[in-house]
């Protein structure tokens, strides 16, 4: 059942034994339903606002910085997700190898609309810019977050067209490098940052989402894949992640929550953070 509201109804009415992925707007209703247990745990997925560094004007680092400066991520996440999941506190979720609790203070932006306007002027866009943010239609939270960001960016002269597309169309469009901005999620399946980073490499089918090409980045990721020593591997993860943040490529927004509604009498079901494939035993 791909529609979130329909899934919630299946849970509330007891028509389904187990319902995965209860949307934020339906959580309280499902929790209040009789004969159903709502279960949740922290996920291993982070949702990012990603910039296509190969598509003008996002190829200009000052423009990318202006976008970050114009955003209030805290407000956006609160309005879009409510109490579902949590605002991103790092590039990867807590507990994942490659996490650094000091990273947010160093790199995550504090909103400054006037600074954003000044950066656009320095980049050669004193009258602002027109760009596109692409989201897929089946994810209501990302659509809501996109609308909040669209409003915030407008105050800095960053005029955003919100392009809402069916999932397959969105995939073809974004993976072909045609959108300035998109929301994109990566999951640290084995609780290391490698899977999240390799998706941004030139060898990945998803590479054109950002098109980030510096040799320092690809070298750091390749070194992390070759390092057997955990301390050394994490050091390379950090080098790669810092480059993404220093260059305003991937702005962490939200850490995923895994949840499900389980009908009374169902036993042996466990939410599983690894690969986010749940256990039915």
Low-confidence stretches: none
The ordered string of helix (H) and strand (E) elements is HEHEHHEHHEHEHEHHHEEE
Number of helices: 11
Cα gyration radius (Å): 20 Å
Strand pairing plus helix content: what structural class?
A: alpha+beta
Terminal CA distance: 22 Å
Tell how many strands the DSSP assignment holds.
9
Helical fraction equals 25-40%
Query: How does the major sheet shape up?
Result: 7 strands, mixed
Characterize the structure shown.
The protein is of the alpha+beta class and 281 residues long. It is built from eleven helices and nine strands. The strands form two sheets. Strands 1, 2, 3, 4, 5, 6 and 7 form a seven-stranded mixed β-sheet that branches. Helix 7 links the parallel strand 4 and strand 5 (158-165). Helix 3 packs antiparallel against helix 6 (113-122), helix 4 (73-81) packs antiparallel against helix 7 (140-154) and helix 10 (215-226) packs antiparallel against helix 11 (230-246). The longest helix is centred in the C-terminal third of the chain and has 17 residues, at 230-246. It starts with a helix and ends with a strand. The mean pLDDT is 95.
């Amino acid at each position: 059942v791909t529609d979130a509201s329909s899934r919630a109804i299946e849970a509330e009415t007891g028509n389904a034994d187990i319902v995965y992925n209860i949307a934020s707007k339906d959580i309280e209703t499902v929790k209040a339903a009789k004969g159903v247990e709502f279960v949740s745990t922290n996920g291993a997925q982070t949702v990012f606002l990603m910039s296509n560094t190969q598509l003008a004007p996002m190829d200009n680092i000052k423009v990318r910085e202006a976008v970050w400066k114009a955003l209030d991520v805290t407000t956006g996440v609160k309005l879009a997700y409510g109490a579902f999941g949590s605002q991103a506190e790092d590039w990867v979720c807590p507990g994942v190898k490659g996490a650094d609790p000091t990273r947010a203070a160093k790199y995550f932006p504090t909103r400054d609309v006037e600074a954003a306007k000044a950066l656009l002027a320095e980049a050669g866009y004193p009258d602002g810019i027109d760009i596109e943010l692409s989201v897929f239609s089946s994810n209501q939270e990302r659509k809501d977050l996109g609308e909040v960001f669209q409003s915030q960016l407008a105050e800095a002269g960053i005029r955003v067209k919100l392009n809402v597309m069916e999932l397959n169309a969105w995939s073809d469009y974004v993976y072909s490098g045609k959108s300035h901005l998109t929301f994109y999620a990566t999951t640290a399946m084995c609780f290391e940052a490698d899977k999240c980073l390799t998706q941004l490499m030139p060898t990945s089918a998803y590479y054109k989402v950002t098109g980030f090409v510096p040799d320092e980045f690809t070298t750091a990721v390749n070194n992390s894949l070759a390092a057997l020593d955990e301390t050394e591997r994490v050091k390379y993860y950090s080098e790669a992640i810092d480059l993404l943040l220093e260059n305003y490529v991937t702005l962490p927004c939200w850490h995923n929550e895994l949840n499900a509604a389980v009908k009374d009498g169902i036993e042996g079901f466990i939410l599983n953070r690894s690969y986010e494939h749940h256990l039915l035993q």
